[in-house]
Amino acid sequence: MAAKKVALACSVCGSRNYMVTKKPNRLERLEVMKFCKFCGQHTMHRETM
Length: 49
Prior knowledge:
Helices cover 0% and strands 51% of the residues. The chain is an all-beta fold. It has one domain: Rubrerythrin, domain 2, CATH 2.20.28.120. Strands 2-1-4-3 form a four-stranded antiparallel sheet, with no helix packed on it. The protein is elongated and about 35 Å long. The two termini are 20 Å apart. One of its GO terms (biological process) is translation. This is Large ribosomal subunit protein bL33. One of its GO terms (cellular component) is ribosome. Belongs to the bacterial ribosomal protein bL33 family.
């Protein structure tokens, strides 16, 4: 069985740059500072459904 994945979307431009595995014990949305290649800077990325 394959692991379920969710996308991380940039909070500035909204592009979905990164994919992470969905963890069943994570109750809140994951928020991570990542580099967005479309914005050209480090921005907050949030887990999308």
